[in-house]
Write a structure and sequence with these properties.
single chain; alpha/beta; Rossmann fold; five-stranded parallel β-sheet; 7 helices; disordered N terminus; two-component regulatory system
């Protein structure tokens, strides 16, 4: 738990109940949690705060998650290397999504219905321990 107390994560999720559940769980687990409601806000918070990891939804208003990830990866050295876990309702079987995932290199692509919040916390810990 001590490792996570120093770790700052950004949760970019438009659905309020989902965002609140993630924020609450990660806060209880000792993380410093930042949040954003859409990709536009998420990108601004990411560049300003430079979190240790970003949890990112795909389908959001203003700017979708894949556009945010692409802009993040193009901006600077920090953005190219920050771990990103995509947490979405979309399966990665869509060819366009598959190509964007490959090009943007997220750490994990997790379909929400296949993972509990505790599983997501474990994936975050696993990625941050590298």
């Amino acid at each position: 738990m001590e490792e996570s107390t120093k770790k700052k994560i950004l949760i970019v999720e438009d659905e309020m109940s989902e965002r609140k559940a993630l924020v609450d769980k990660f806060t209880r687990e000792g993380f410093r949690v930042l949040k954003a409601r859409d990709g536009e806000e998420g990108l601004a918070v990411a560049f300003k705060e430079q979190p240790s990891l970003i949890l990112l939804d795909i389908v959001m208003p203003k700017m979708d998650g894949m556009t945010m990830l692409k802009k993040l990866r193009q901006e600077n050295a920090w953005g190219k290397n920050v771990p990103v876990i995509i947490l979405t309702n979309l399966n990665a079987d869509n060819e366009k999504i598959n190509k964007e995932i490959t090009d943007s290199e997220p750490s994990y692509y997790l379909v929400k219905s296949n993972w509990t919040i505790s599983d997501v916390v474990e994936k975050v810990r696993e990625r941050l321990s590298r």
